[in-house]
């Protein structure tokens, strides 16, 4: 198995789980004859699924049965409206957009969507039950928690992908959309099964050439390939396009000719893609152009696109959305300025604009104030916008988190933010209720996940990493779900029913994020990666650059003072109840201690009583030790799954075991040198059992120096 079908393998169900499968109806009725409609797709998918899982061939009809009862059992799938027009009995009032109702009663299955997309979601839900050997009666009404459940791809026209770890783009190559869009349809199929409803197909660092007539047509072909799965297309825009592509001498958002230019481009896009989802905009960030160039506000910039989109409806009756990124900061700020703090940027740039955005603008906010680190406090911007719709940006691609060469199951990290209570006005204010629109009564909001799948058949470059994509979709639909339950479901669908496989995947995955945090950066100091590659360790390079995650480490101490009283003031961006917790070192949780405070290495932690430096040593050893167990646990699964996936995963887990030691020794060694404080157990600096690469005698290899030296064995 090469991973291409992800969790939609429809593998043959083992005999011992089949005894109730007779209840699966012998007939599918899909209430739409248009081949590009999601309901039609649902019929085909049900047929393929039942064939794969139960080995049974089931016919599809597109005509209403005269009655729908146990005398003529079938799986009936369609929109609630179509069903009601015929039978007049479905209750539509409890649906929200994209919702579905799934009823399994003996040998009658009814799947009704609020719209076509919802009907397809219901069909996937039913297939997921059958694939897991669940044939019980259900009566399930399921509505999404949030309307925006999008993924972002950082794909470039030349086929490269920024921060993608699974080969070149499935969408583009050589400056145009690819000819064969099979992989795009397959991606849309996976996405719709986890109820994702749109894809931004190109990099946030956007190229204006996406808007040439030929490329608009290419985008149209991509949208056509995804439409049967109810997945809509959106694109990232380059703010300066009127100048760079249009040849104008300005891209000022308040200049009527600029406005007209965008209107025209938007019209052309909608002519080709009538159901376009909308735009994603990264402006005035990391060198990207934006409205600030003309002393216009970020809201002026966002609203220009919002107005252009509002001129177009789409099939679902709701127009396009502008996802405007809050990741705006000046990477030239001066670190020697004690008060300068990149973490302050989002609130500084956006708070005063609250209420100034058009109602089809959603501000897309990374989960933490810096950048997808192994642990960050919740972005305070979620607690500073009350009249603006917001979405949370998560990363499925493991940019700072091992780049798919390490297993890191991310939902436990995401939950630290989604479940965080920001206490706005001293009332419960969970992040997940803010982005759903519920807390501040916003009509829009939701989730954006940076995925960056590539042409590798595993999609993400690692079979195990697919649990993150699966769980992302599930959480965007229902953020209250339990990370371990989602993982178990994914494991059953991906690897089958062997108990030992389930146990090992669960144990490894659930231990993976804590282990990664332990052997990379602890106590809120962030991930300590190399600032360019974002892969291996480079603790020396965190400070003295505008992009870095500043540690302010010196011989005496470490940590960034972000208090109001003494530091950068960041703690004061939270509502008072939360601000108070972080302002005070005694109430700041240990795992964020160094994010908020600068302390001596000898400072004693509240929890364990260890000193900060001894905690660094202990945590790095503990994390690497946990990582060593992953490959051994996996070894025991030989023969319990196909060799192809078994070996591929084993190879990666062995790499992770080794690389966790590289991390351990790089970080502990660095702070040992800097602080001059010995490890109380004597491990740091001594590696009696470690095999140094430079002492190996392999033929055909030669030693090269590696920069930064910490990422390699003795610098080579
Ligand atoms: C950083 C990435 C960079 C992205 C940027 C962004 O390293 O490649 O362009 O985020 O999100 O994490 O815009």
Can you walk me through this structure?
Helices cover 33% and strands 11% of the residues. By secondary structure, the protein is of the alpha/beta class. It has 3 domains: 15-142, Chitobiase, domain 2 (2-Layer Sandwich); 148-495, Alpha-Beta Barrel (TIM Barrel); 519-560 and 598-689, Alpha-d-glucuronidase, C-terminal Domain (Alpha-Beta Complex), CATH 3.90.1330. It is globular. The chain binds beta-D-glucopyranuronic acid. Residues 162-163, 204-205, 282, 327, 371-372, 399 line the site of beta-D-glucopyranuronic acid.
Number of domains: 3
Q: Main β-sheet: number of strands, strand sense, barrel status?
A: 8 strands, parallel, barrel
Class by SSE composition = alpha/beta
Strand content: 5-15%
Rounded to an integer in angstroms, the radius of gyration calculated over CA atoms is 26 Å
Number of E-type strands: 18
CATH architecture name of the largest domain: Alpha-Beta Barrel
CATH class of the largest domain: Alpha Beta
Query: How do the strands of the widest beta sheet line up side by side?
Result: 7-10-11-12-13-14-15-16
CATH superfamily of the largest domain: Glycosidases
- What's the average pLDDT? 94
